[in-house]
Design brief:
- The structure is a homotetramer.
- Chain A has 2 domains: 177 residues, NAD(P)-binding Rossmann-like Domain (Rossmann fold), CATH 3.40.50.720; 107 residues, N-(1-d-carboxylethyl)-l-norvaline Dehydrogenase, domain 2 (Orthogonal Bundle).
- In chain A, 46% of the residues lie in helices and 11% in strands.
- The first copy, chain A, is built from 15 helices and 8 strands.
- The first copy, chain A, has an 8-stranded mixed sheet with strand order 3-2-1-4-5-6-7-8, with helices on both faces.
- At the A-B interface, helix 5, strand 7, helix 9, strand 8 and helix 10 of A face helix 5, strand 7, helix 9, strand 8 and helix 10 of B.
Chain lengths: 341, 341, 341, 341
Amino acid sequence: MQLGMIGLGRMGANLVRRLLRGGHQCTVFDRSAKAVDELVKETAVGAASLRELVERLTKPRAVWLMVPVGAVDQTIAELLPYLEHGDIVIDGGNSYYIDDIRRAGELTPRGIRYVDVGTSGGVWGLERGYCMMIGGDAGTVRYLDPIFATLAPGHGDIPHTPGRDEAVGKDGKTSEQGYLHCGPSGAGHFVKMVHNGIEYGVMAAYAEGFAVLKGANAGKKSGVVDAETTPLRDPEHFQYDLDLTEIAEVWRRGSVIASWLLDLSATALIRDPALSTFAGRVSDSGEGRWTIKAAIDEGVPVHVLSSALYERFSSRGEADFADKLLSAMRYEFGGHLEKQA
Amino acid sequence: MQLGMIGLGRMGANLVRRLLRGGHQCTVFDRSAKAVDELVKETAVGAASLRELVERLTKPRAVWLMVPVGAVDQTIAELLPYLEHGDIVIDGGNSYYIDDIRRAGELTPRGIRYVDVGTSGGVWGLERGYCMMIGGDAGTVRYLDPIFATLAPGHGDIPHTPGRDEAVGKDGKTSEQGYLHCGPSGAGHFVKMVHNGIEYGVMAAYAEGFAVLKGANAGKKSGVVDAETTPLRDPEHFQYDLDLTEIAEVWRRGSVIASWLLDLSATALIRDPALSTFAGRVSDSGEGRWTIKAAIDEGVPVHVLSSALYERFSSRGEADFADKLLSAMRYEFGGHLEKQA
Amino acid sequence: MQLGMIGLGRMGANLVRRLLRGGHQCTVFDRSAKAVDELVKETAVGAASLRELVERLTKPRAVWLMVPVGAVDQTIAELLPYLEHGDIVIDGGNSYYIDDIRRAGELTPRGIRYVDVGTSGGVWGLERGYCMMIGGDAGTVRYLDPIFATLAPGHGDIPHTPGRDEAVGKDGKTSEQGYLHCGPSGAGHFVKMVHNGIEYGVMAAYAEGFAVLKGANAGKKSGVVDAETTPLRDPEHFQYDLDLTEIAEVWRRGSVIASWLLDLSATALIRDPALSTFAGRVSDSGEGRWTIKAAIDEGVPVHVLSSALYERFSSRGEADFADKLLSAMRYEFGGHLEKQA
Amino acid sequence: MQLGMIGLGRMGANLVRRLLRGGHQCTVFDRSAKAVDELVKETAVGAASLRELVERLTKPRAVWLMVPVGAVDQTIAELLPYLEHGDIVIDGGNSYYIDDIRRAGELTPRGIRYVDVGTSGGVWGLERGYCMMIGGDAGTVRYLDPIFATLAPGHGDIPHTPGRDEAVGKDGKTSEQGYLHCGPSGAGHFVKMVHNGIEYGVMAAYAEGFAVLKGANAGKKSGVVDAETTPLRDPEHFQYDLDLTEIAEVWRRGSVIASWLLDLSATALIRDPALSTFAGRVSDSGEGRWTIKAAIDEGVPVHVLSSALYERFSSRGEADFADKLLSAMRYEFGGHLEKQA
């Protein structure tokens, strides 16, 4: 079917490519004419403006926004004059689900249908397909099914979940194809938000674990002996120089913690076992933060997900003032001076 | 080759089965004659005592212990009179790596070789193969290679890690087959210990995330309005009845958090979406605890792994006294009475 | 000076009492005529309605609201028709500071001055005085100084902070009297919010510590030996029956962790060393939650404050679903059955 | 009475001074003759060797060790030849309680009595008195009572805990004087260990809270707008420049979180509100670590105490490798490059 795509960054462009390969017709727009030109070469229809993009689509039009979170509202506002009753706006970015609820509330009275799509897959999506979590009106989501079915990874060779057929029947559920209508407006981004919250937690679990492995040679370091340092009690228990690269690899094969994130860790460690190209300043996007806020509103304890988020804050120096106050208190009650680095 | 197996519980019996299928000769012993008989039917050689087991093996003998952690030392002590210089004792259970270091120190002067093997794979190992992390003398581990190669899953259809051949060469590394000599005595169980520590963290990340999804309908509950309860500020943001079973399924397909533990969660949710057969009293084994202790000795922060462990403690009521003290303090400073359940 | 008080619950009534004792004139209103009558007996002026309360005050009127968080906006709305340019509304409850910002924004154009006061002191405030954190226009706060000075504890016998005179001068700072103008609207409740966030963290630190003391006899319990339970490795290290009541008392005297919350713990433990009158279901108010949300917005890591909040959630059973999922995963990969309680 | 003191560092010297002021006779030894001389000027009896120290005491001798943790065993070994049946060795340092249990086990058969004393009070102890937690044989502890009574702060003006007299009677409990016989060998250091674990947690709660206060002006910073940074959603809610020094002061007076550690924070902030003399590299001593290990052995969840410890690890860069792995994973799945500092 036909789809308009606004925003041709890495994600947007690859979504278009996957749709084109799947036989869909894509009309594309980006502030960068070069980005448009590149996809036109790959058989997309180019548009020089939002207006032109809309005009080149047949009604009811489906327009997919793949723009930065902060630009979604403005893009919709600019788009709105050209849209008509029955047209569909899809936000495929990383919007806060609360904005989806608001936007749907604003667009519905005008007859514009709003669909929110949380999209996971990163730079691998073009090849592997995108896992999509979708929110909005059921009829509209069903109408867009050919788009989602093409973008999704499909069943592929990922094993069937045991007992699934008996429970849900052999058809009618798209989750096995890698996309899911999760509920009304915002539900898609809500589920994607939690997905990312979990992602932070899982990543942190591996990161901490590998750090413990790396520290397994702690007993080899000649310990500083002073009043400010706790000596290692049993240095003979920490004499291992473990090969993290090989351990990541072996865990991929038959262990309980095999996962795609572990696969990626194995790749990263193969490339540079010391990870020396990284400084360890870890960014966080909104989803991790929003997950915690949602959990707090729900009254659900999320020790692990919060810790994973805070670790990212700390990695960027955001714990420094708190740490200084700890040192200051230690100085006040014990006369402890900070050790030099 | 030939292997003696002591301990024919679920794990031990399945190890024997996989070895028999792989063409090895297994002599087996268990306190339960019935367990021995069952494997004898499957072509294993039965032994009625530890002595008989040893006598039925040719030198140098390789004896694999698959007994409860608390029984390893005693079993070795009972076995020792029958063993000779050059024989090999393999501990395939969940020993604390510190015990491995001690045992190797005790056995080496007698010429007995000690190998520690951390084994992951659970009830699925017979079919999928076991991921093994091995500690001990390099020559001994190499000698046992046929055993490990058979028990391991092998390369199978798990994708090759990009860049691996260039980095490590096409041969000589067993990690791609699913087993790895990690280092000297204790290294196998050290790596397995951290594996389980990570496992707790990853599991907790999913568990917390699914709990947040489940709470997405918090706005539908008619809130109690009293001084002891915080009202939900924006109930309209928590009106989703999410289908956790379908979400687990869709995440398995192309999402960043796809993993084997997620596969298992999908299976569990298919079977019983409310998980009502579980009370939520989560056991923990030693490895999770030892991981934290090792991290503390190394001075490595492990917020996530610790939280995951403590959540298990709490699930069994171990936070109750602390909680009572919180309520008691609230009563003292504010006259707050506990709300009834 | 003159003050109108709306809301004569425990806190409101005691504020009035302390003001009356300090020589101020209080006009009071509550939905319960009985609550009004009681204070009238103690020389307050009673009012039968909000209108009457306003009419009985001389201009510019100062009206202090001490009503539940959820009732503040409505009370202001009902009050508004009777207020005039220059009048002052004080919210002394536990409002979210974001509501203060909004309210000030709504009232200022009408010439009504809005002051937010975070009040700490609980049931002890009548006797000890109230620690107050104040937000609003500096002139208005200064105008109300006689009220704050009376409600506050004053300098009393709490030691002077060393170096303070040199740094801030001997006068002009009210913080030493126990009240502080923290900044513009919302600043009072922001500081009170963080105060409560810290309170949760400090309480949890004590609660966890006392639980570790209580567990010091863990080695005396005959351990269950099964595959689902980690045996205590060195039971001889956990043979202490510690007297928590006496320990709380001794820590009050010269230790680094002496505090008012410890004093209260000592009182609670004297009354009932086993705390058996409490079930351990710990309520949380909004401030703890809002503190975490503010920290997340600021990008400040708050591991401890979050953990303290989540522990309260867990104490009320809010981790149950996550725990069930953990048990479900363990069943799937290892066939582990939950232990019975 | 008479006491020998070995180790005249800050703590040891001040203990001697407080004892001398209390009318006790102190014989002192230190490797530094200068340290001995200084106390001799203050009427202590000097000793040039351990042997001399022992010889100058009358039997049964009481020798207090105030040496670094790592030097205790050696000092006892050197002392042992000169000690006789009935003599008492007191370890007043920060020993691991497990070492106390071992030492008592070694000394008891020789008739030497061993007492472990956890001492809190830091540089303030000389003036305020020391809070002491004592382990060992009841008779020996009673024999040393004059020493403990002098070192302790005594009742002073710290309020009596309500209900205490009815519960424990007016006499016979030393906890109100600031010292306590907690139980058999190791109990003193066990309680002191947990004291320090709590100390870490309480300190972290304040540190995090003050950091949130400091971040209250986050909305004033011109936000970077890029895909790697989450924009602050409501900058108008974070426009406060809070005066942390004044806030620390006001909380000291009547608030729920008043404490000695808050007093010290107020002092530190008066001295340097930006705490710019500190780098934020926070040391940790053994007690914090041992508390977590004890909690894990007991199966008691200690989210807050652990987080507080790990924050100290992180402050010294110990999370760096884990953070690098997080960045590496983000690069692998999303092509995310780290932001520059």
